[in-house]
Design brief:
By secondary structure, this protein is of the alpha/beta class. It has eleven helices and ten strands. The strands form two sheets. The protein has a five-stranded parallel sheet. The site of S-adenosylmethionine (SAM) has 24 residues, from helix 5, strand 7, strand 8 and strand 10.
Length: about 280
């Protein structure tokens, strides 16, 4: 495992840690953290609590988005010299909306071993309990903090058929839900997964409009950490979004009649439906 033979290069372990409940730290993760030479931790003070709880005395080094680029070459050098290291985030799986990607690439570029100790991630925990199809999903992570950029990104997602997964901060959750309801439609099904594995864990499914109102009415529900899961566009709206794009391109250079004929042929949709949509689009110009 983490122990290395003399002269051999060390390995980099990507270790998932609890997102709330300390019992979720796997026995393998505990063993790796206790036996590596160094733990790279996003926030060493935060991780000290976890390590203390498991009586792990390994040295730690702060490794975060602001020093990742600078520290990576030195860390790779140390791995080449035989030290083994574990990368941990404040919570959950490193690299998932957390630092570490540059380090993983640089480590692999020197043919060093990068190996995961999988475990908690808010993304997977929320998906597993949301009651919204996890079959295919698009992980968006954090949305842009500014309203205009957030709304623009949400509009781009309108026709996406996969389930959408977002991380959101407590001070933006209400604004995010309001924007999601107005952009994707107040009737779209969604789930708010809050404070997972912690005392105030809340998993609430409803429509975007209903959940937005629920947050407005109960300020307590805007506290803590959030994953928001939103159902993908219904099949016909995904098809419709495709058809709209196709017609927009065709109408830009062809007559209405020609555009409708080609779009009907390519999309397989009914001629009347395509015609009505084309007329609607021309009207919008
Ligand atoms: N790498 C982490 C993971 O694998 O889940 C995510 C790190 S990201 C910087 C932190 C965000 O994850 C929070 O803002 C929140 O959106 C989500 N999150 C983390 N812990 C959570 C929890 N217990 N319940 C709900 N969401 C959580």
């Amino acid at each position: 495992m983490a122990k290395h033979t003399a002269g051999a290069p060390g390995a980099l372990y990507i270790v998932a840690t609890p997102i709330g409940n300390l019992e979720d730290l796997s026995p393998r993760a505990q063993r790796i953290l206790a036996s590596v030479d160094l733990i790279l931790a996003e926030d060493t003070r935060h991780s000290a609590r976890l390590l203390r709880a498991f009586d792990i005395r390994t040295r730690t080094l702060a490794f975060h988005e602001h020093n990742e680029a600078r520290l990576t070459p030195r860390i790779v050098e140390r791995l080449l010299n035989g030290e083994s290291m574990a990368l941990i985030a404040d919570a959950g799986t490193p690299l998932i909306s957390d630092p570490g990607f540059k380090l993983v690439r640089a480590t692999q570029a020197r043919d060093l071993t990068v190996t995961p100790a999988p475990g908690p991630s808010a993304l997977v925990a929320a998906l597993s309990c949301a009651g919204i199809s996890p079959g295919k999903f698009l992980f968006e992570g954090f949305m842009p903090p500014r309203e205009q950029a957030r709304r623009r990104r949400l509009s781009e997602l309108t026709g996406v058929a996969q389930t959408l997964v977002f991380y959101e901060a407590p001070h933006r959750i209400k604004a995010f839900m309001a924007d999601a309801a107005s952009t994707l439609g107040a009737e779209r099904e969604a789930c708010i997964a809050r404070e997972l594995t912690k005392t105030f864990e809340t998993i609430r499914r409803g429509t975007l409009g209903g959940l937005r109102n629920w947050l407005e009415q109960d300020p307590e529900q805007s506290r803590g950490e959030f994953v928001v899961i939103i159902a993908g566009a219904a099949p016909q709206s995904a098809d419709r979004a495709e058809l709209v794009r196709l017609l927009q391109v065709l109408l830009a250079s062809l007559s209405l009649k020609q555009a409708v004929r080609i779009a009907t042929e390519l999309s397989g949709a009914g001629r009347n439906e395509v015609y009505d949509l084309a007329v609607e689009l021309i009207g919008e110009k």
